[in-house]
Amino acid sequence: MSGRLLRLACAAAVTAGIVLAPVPAAAVPEPGSGADRSVAGLLTDLQRLYREAEKATETYNGTEERLRAQRAVVRRLDAELARTRLSLRDSRGAAGRLARQQYRNSSDLSPYLRLLLARDPQRALDQGHVLGQLARDRAETVGRLAGNERKADELAGRARKALEEQAALAKRQAEERDGVRERLRAVEELLASLTPGELAALAEFERSGIAEAQERFMASGALGDDDKPSAAGERAVRFAVEQLGKPYEWGAEGPASYDCSGLTSVAWERAGTPVPRTSQEQWARLERVPLDELRPGDLVVYFPEATHVAIYLGDGMVVQAPRPGAEVKVSPIAANPVLGAVRPDPGGEPLRRYTPPRLPEGAADGSDEGYADAYAPAAPETSIR
Q1: Structure pTM?
Q2: pLDDT single digits (tens) 196-243
Q3: Disulfide: which of 1, 116, 229, 383 matches 233 by Cβ 3.0-4.6 Å?
């Protein structure tokens, strides 16, 4: 839906850009409207909408992850309840057999009188031991029965509560899915309203802004010399590079398409180190590393709310799933405002030898699309922490 329209818009921008590249970036007139629309303003609006869409996507992803975990809880409780009910049935059967046996062996005489009147006192004593053991067995069976009944009641209550929580998460997930779609429709509407000249100027303005942001970022000294990756980091990078050219799709975890955190989480899962599903959780739960200690495979997190993430490739470049309508690509690290970096395997020893993966032709082609004002001069400085 959104990807098709966005790709058409990008194609129009490329076609129009051949003719309209010299258009000034200050303002582009809309034919027939009698009004000017600022390219900077258009880019800001577009980035804001993209950022809202990605924020909604990561919220949806987080709920999806919780729903997946809750379904596992429901399955586990259901299985445990089934086992407990089976044990309860067996305990009730054993209690019934003991009750029938007690009824058949009942007598009004006390064990003391039975011993005095017995022709064979030793046999009577032996029978007493047997009866005592049967009494203890009855007590244990009754205790088991009562315990199983309590456990079954408790598990039934927990299973009902878990199922209610699952239903609430499923409802929330549906609402969040509708929210993502609504924000993507807003992106489509804005793109559909632009003329070919505006699209071309917008693309050029974005490219020049990212180039300037990257130059400032690299000149700031934020990055040091790249360390060599760990063995797992190398596997994660190579997996990410193998995904180049696959389309972005919100909520996707491969193998045909990915969103930003879907790519990073699957890459590290394939490397043997599972990480949280969303960019916010990756930022919150993984160990943070200074930018000047980055090594390939580390995750670079963007925006104050940690709503975007990419895999560090080396030499100031990342592999990312940028946005709806785009494809997995290689981008400058400063294509979006950097929040910081995290390392999924902080204990992983760097490789002694490392050869970066060979990138296919066109790996860096296409829009790097920022989701907010990535071109503010202060952006690189505020992110170095």
Answers
A1: 0.60
A2: 877 777 778 788 888 898 999 999 989 988 889 999 999 999 999 999
A3: 229
Nearest partner of 345 among 280, 271, 292, 283, judged by Cα: 271
pLDDT of the residue at 175: 76
What are residue 258's phi and psi, to 5 degrees? -145, 155
Question: Would you say 290 and 308 are in contact if contact means Cβ atoms under 8 Å apart?
Answer: no
- Residue 250 has a pLDDT of 80
CA pair distance 229, 225, nearest whole angstrom: 12
The two tokens of residue 368 are 């790097």
> Looking up tokens 């899962």, which residue turns up?
269
Residue 311, classed as helix, strand or coil, is strand
User: ω before 357 within 30° of 0 (cis)?
Assistant: no
Structure confidence at residue 195 (pLDDT): 79
CA–CA distance, 375 with 281 (Å, rounded to integer): 26
First vs last C-alpha separation in the chain: 39
Which residues, given as ranges, of the chain have pLDDT below 70?
1-37, 39, 42-43, 87-148, 369-385
What is 48-185's CATH topology? Helix Hairpins (1.10.287)
Give the CATH number of domain 204-383; options: 3.90.1720.10, 3.40.50.450, 3.40.50.1820, 3.90.1230.10: 3.90.1720.10
Amino acid at 216: R
SS3 call for 286: coil
Residue 309's beta-bridge partner residues? 301
pLDDT of residue 11: 39
* Domain locations along the chain: 48-185, 204-383
Q: Are strands 329-332 and 317-320 parallel, antiparallel or unpaired?
A: antiparallel
Nearby residues of 37 by Cβ (< 8 Å), 6 or more positions away: 27, 28, 29, 30, 198
